[in-house]
Write a structure and sequence with these properties.
By secondary structure, the protein is of the alpha+beta class. The protein is 33% helix and 21% strand. A 5-stranded antiparallel sheet has the order 8-7-9-16-11. A hairpin with a 3-residue loop joins strand 12 and strand 13. Helix 1 runs antiparallel to helix 10, helix 3 packs across helix 4 and helix 5 packs across helix 10. The protein is globular and about 75 Å long.
Length: 385
């Protein structure tokens, strides 16, 4: 199973194309729209969210609310296209003299992209590099979430830090985290920390600045055996880290104890193994975050990602003109102050898709009926080990 996206921030639409989704997966536009709405939420979002109310159209691969096994095409229209149709037109009559960008913004793909693709107008780079692309990514990857839910696998994301404000939750399970964070404007399960996060966002906004943070993804219901130790590109931790790092503004990923492992002794890091006839093999801790040797071990998968502050500031940083080389302050495009909650939603989506891919690699099948039969047979085997 794989997906591709296409489209520009101010183009007619964003498109996702999913290949390899088995037949019989329940999938509706309403189901995907719930995730698209979550992506647009969050305290600290910018003016674009007031313009775009993302809704998906499924144009192929689904009939009667069930996937057919054919490619699934998903289209999210850009409402702002009406204001950009002359400038962004694919035709030779496009107005290429308006909204020209020649001042690269620090922290964006602007300068490197313009040099790589030999563009004199940086708009040709920023339109595609924009995090607006993640609307198509959420739509496409939600197909993977739909598949996993049929097998009792749940994916939950929540914000654990914005700026210096961080949660202090102890002992909350994934269901409690999901319930509490769903009630939060920042997807934060700790109400006290959420208030501190809002204050930090407000201060950054007043200063014309931006804020990043950290979010966590927890996946429950996973069987032992997804991924493999046998080759580098089959290790599931590497694939998940790659999926997360492919998201705009993500600068680091950790699994389980992550970077803290470098501060501790081995006896404080590794999960001891136990066995009893009722539970089978089990661990009393989950410091590995559900992955050992690139393979799921049956414990909840826990990974975190850090999002840098959005580089488009209303207090622009120093830059220079691509053409004249004269120093300027970088141009300002419409932007958020903080988009960590949105990044958590997108993180959920890409993690769900990567897990779904690994699931299909392990259990095969062209339909949910076949996949479930294979899965049930494997789980019978696991219980007998």
């Amino acid at each position: 199973m794989r997906y591709l996206t296409a489209g520009e921030s101010h183009g007619p639409a964003l498109t996702g194309l999913v290949e390899g989704l088995p037949a019989g997966v329940p999938l509706t536009e309403e189901y995907i729209n719930i995730q698209l709405a979550r992506r647009q939420g969050g305290y600290g979002r910018g003016g674009r969210m007031e313009i775009e109310k993302d809704r998906v159209s499924i144009t192929s691969g689904v009939r009667g609310g069930l996937s057919t096994g054919g490619p699934v095409c998903l289209v999210v229209e850009n409402r702002d296209w009406a204001n950009w149709s002359e400038i962004m037109s694919p035709g030779v009559d496009a107005n290429l003299e308006e909204k020209v960008v020649t001042k690269p913004r620090p922290g964006h793909a602007d300068l490197a992209g313009a040099i790589k693709y030999n563009h004199r107008d940086i708009r040709n780079i920023l339109e595609r590099a924009s995090a607006r692309e993640t609307a198509a990514r959420v739509a496409a990857c939600t197909t993977g979430r739909a598949l996993l839910e049929q097998l009792g696998i749940k994916v939950t994301g929540h914000v654990i830090r914005i700026g210096t404000a961080a949660i202090s939750l102890v002992g909350l399970g994934p269901e409690e985290i999901k319930e509490k964070s769903a009630q939060s404007a920042l997807l934060c399960a700790d109400p006290q920390a959420e208030e501190e996060m809002k204050k930090e966002i407000d201060r950054a906004k007043q200063e014309g600045d931006s804020l990043g943070g950290v979010f966590e993804i927890v996946v429950t219901g996973l069987p032992v055996g997804l991924g493999s130790h046998a080759q580098y590109d089959r290790k599931l931790d590497g694939r998940l880290a790659g999926a997360m790092m492919s998201l705009q503004a993500i600068k680091g990923v950790e699994i389980g104890l992550g970077f803290k492992s470098g501060e501790l002794k081995g006896s404080q890091v590794h999960d001891e193994l136990f066995y009893d006839s009722a539970r089978g093999f089990y661990r009393e801790t989950n410091r590995a975050g559900g992955l050992e040797g690139g393979i799921t071990n049956g414990e909840p998968l826990v990974l975190r990602a850090v999002m840098k502050p959005i580089p488009t500031l209303y207090k622009p940083l120093k830059s220079l003109d691509l053409l004249t080389k004269e120093p300027y302050e970088a141009s300002v495009e419409r932007s958020d102050v903080c988009a960590v909650p949105a990044a958590a939603v997108v993180g959920e989506a890409v993690v769900a898709f990567e897990i779904a891919k690994a699931f299909l690699e392990k259990f095969g099948g062209d339909s949910m009926v076949e996949i479930r039969r294979n899965y049930d047979s494997y789980m019978d085997y696991v219980e007998q080990v």
